[in-house]
Design brief:
heterodimer; A: about 325 residues; alpha/beta; Rossmann fold; 2 domains; 8 helices; B: about 250 residues; 6 helices; binds flavin-adenine dinucleotide; binds adenosine monophosphate
Chain lengths: ~325, ~250
């Protein structure tokens, strides 16, 4: 038996989450005596996964798979899972992984638990801890099928090195034609996405208008962060819908979340609760965000943020 | 065009989340239930297809009798017929199979579900329904146009968007963007009166198995107090983020 991870990549480069999935799978494999196998599509530098416990990488290279397609990609994963005799498949919670997961689950007749935040309990079944009610609670759920799929939340387990010897094998499946045609992809490639970001800098209505967003962008630049916003900000068209985070927007599971001029409404906090460290900058010391944050500055964003940008530049320069 | 909208009945976004019966069940006491926000965007888009392109709109919920007020609200907003599969929803597999079975019987060109339900956040039902029906599937759908038997959809991806096309039948996992927030509808008096006369069909369940079963729930540990940093002393914030939180 084996544990299969889906190692995602971006322009041929493995994503950080792939190493996190490998670390997580290796820890489970130590208990179950399985080996960890990874499948990667059109990616390079695959033996680097060996550093995180992957013994074998199934490398699929195909022109037909050059853009992501949930149907063809779930088919590839299905074939590899069957070939490798995988009884556990672990995927990330990227938009693409979430898209293909239900299709893969039906193909493999596997129970799928999404938003998993911890290692499974293996006694008397296979039980995972999931976040539910948009991070307001956790639920324990048993996956009862023989083959299981776990969707691991970003940053929930972290990276843990475990060097093993790793072989890379090519696999060239014949892939059926998909009924879905990708017409165009419009992606901001020089910016980190909220889903992949270690740090997210987010602005709310307290910033008064879109003309002030250079504060958010400059701060994000220094930190190599993604930018985000509260719902009213995207509703008013100050920023695009894609940046809206919260219960009805995108979830954020970054290491650091910096909220500027955001009050901290329950629907906003729900989406960002699983970020590790939260910082708030707000003029109103009574703003509910101060109850949810780890660090806070009661102050005016227009004074605090420019200083913070300068100080961070100095800090980065002296720590480089 | 025949459209089916999948409606999940969820606690209002401001609800306090608590559990009862030894932390095995969600405490519905004094909780207000609403149409899952992602589904409400889909329902409103379906109304647009009804009004502009002459589509018929059915809604479906897998749930017990207590979900009917939410279903009536969908009828008041303008859906033509409602179907309730009389079963407690226990996992995505069961719900998706029930919906697929009904869809198989009635035949729909377009099935609109939500990207995820805001209670258990599975994000699984729409994709499974598509797969069981052999229909196309577009997730995190933020724009949808149908012409004849062809669909053009925009999907939100990490860091951008992509435009997809396919032929019907199609299942979408929808969200905000399918319509704008300001276009969401509040049922008016006439709609509410008409909804009372619209058919709400109750079907017996057909699926017994489930794949993933919740056993208990817990709440996050209360967090410590915020550490306040003086706005005149920003170096301290950087120091804390670097040395204490190890976040930069
Ligand atoms: C069904 C539903 C779903 C929702 N989903 C979401 C969601 O997913 N995400 C989301 O974000 N919201 C969501 N909301 C909206 C949410 O309830 C709040 O209205 C919203 O989060 C408030 O945004 P805000 O903090 O930017 O604005 P405000 O609440 O107006 O807060 C602005 C803050 O800025 C501060 N401020 C003002 N001037 C300055 C200054 N110069 N410097 C520093 N601080 C300053 C103020 O003290 C205030 O705290 C939802 C609401 C509903 C009803
Ligand atoms: N019990 C249900 N009845 C009808 N539709 C549902 C039900 N549960 C989920 N759905 C649909 O599936 C979508 C995704 O739900 P989930 O997979 O539970 O996150 C929801 O937005 C609904 O459109």
């Amino acid at each position: 038996m084996s544990i299969l991870i889906y190692a995602e990549s971006e322009n041929g480069k493995l994503k950080k989450t792939s190493y996190e999935l490998a670390s997580y799978a290796y820890k489970i494999a130590q208990n179950t005596q399985d080996q960890v196998v990874a499948v990667a599509v059109n990616a390079q530098n695959l033996d680097s996964l060996g550093q995180y416990g992957v013994s074998k990488v199934v490398s699929v290279t195909s022109e037909e798979l050059s853009t992501f397609n949930s149907e063809t990609y779930s088919e590839v994963l299905t074939l590899v899972a069957q070939q490798e005799n995988a009884n556990l498949v672990i995927i990330s919670q990227s938009a693409n992984a979430k898209y293909l997961a239900p299709l893969l689950a039906v193909n493999l007749e596997a129970g799928y638990a999404s938003n998993v935040v911890a290692l499974p309990e293996l006694e008397g079944g296979f039980t995972v801890k999931r976040s539910v009610f948009t991070n307001k609670a956790f639920g324990k759920a048993e996956i009862k099928t023989d083959t299981k799929i776990v969707g691991l939340s970003n940053n929930a387990y972290g990276l843990h090195e475990n060097q093993v010897s790793c072989v890379v094998e090519d696999f060239n499946p014949s892939i059926s034609q998909s009924g879905i045609a990708v017409q165009s992809v419009d992606k901001n490639t020089d910016k980190v996405s909220i889903a992949d970001a270690e740090v997210v800098v987010s602005g709310g209505r307290g910033l008064k208008g879109p003309e002030n967003w250079h504060l958010i962008e400059d701060l994000a630049d220094v930190l190599g962060a993604a930018t985000a916003c509260s719902k009213p900000v995207s509703d008013m068209g100050w920023r695009s819908h894609g940046e809206h985070v919260g219960q009805t927007g995108k979830p954020v599971a970054s290491n650091l979340y910096i909220a500027i001029g955001i009050s901290g409404a329950i629907q906003h906090l729900a989406g960002i609760n699983s970020s590790k460290t939260k910082v708030v900058i707000n003029t109103d010391s009574e703003a509910p965000f101060f109850k949810a944050a780890d660090y806070g500055i009661v102050g005016d964003a227009f004074e605090v943020v420019p200083q913070l940008i300068e100080k961070l530049k100095e800090f980065k320069a002296s720590n480089a | 065009m025949k459209i089916l909208v999948c409606i999940s009945n969820v606690p209002d976004t401001t609800s306090k989340i608590n559990f009862v019966e030894n932390d095995t069940k969600f405490d519905t006491n004094s909780v207000q239930f609403i149409i899952n926000p992602n589904d409400e965007f889909g329902l409103t888009r379906a109304m647009w297809f009804k009004e502009k392109q002459g589509a018929s709109v059915d809604i479906i919920t897998v749930g017990q009798k207590d979900v009917e007020p939410t279903m009536r609200k969908c009828l008041a907003i303008g859906a033509d017929r409602a179907i309730r599969v009389d079963a407690e929803p226990r996992d995505a597999f069961q719900v998706a199979k029930e919906i697929a079975n009904v869809a198989q019987e009635k035949g729909y060109d377009l099935i609109i579900a939500g990207r995820e339900s805001i209670d258990y956040n599975g994000g699984i039902v729409p994709g499974m329904v598509a797969k069981y029906l052999g229909a196309q599937f577009v997730n995190t759908c933020v724009s949808l146009e149908i012409e004849g038997s062809n669909a053009t959809a925009v999907r939100e991806i990490d860091g951008g968007k992509e435009t997809l096309s396919c032929s019907l039948p199609l299942v979408v996992g929808g969200q905000k963007g399918l319509v704008e927030e300001k276009d969401l509808r509040i049922p008016n008096m006439r709609g509410i009166m008409m909804a009372r006369k619209k058919p709400l069909e109750v079907k017996p369940p057909t699926v017994e198995d489930i794949q993933v079963e919740f056993s208990s729930f817990s709440k996050p540990a209360p967090k410590g107090d915020v550490k306040l940093v003086d706005p005149e002393n920003i170096d301290q914030l950087i120091e804390l983020l670097h040395n204490e939180a190890k976040a930069i």
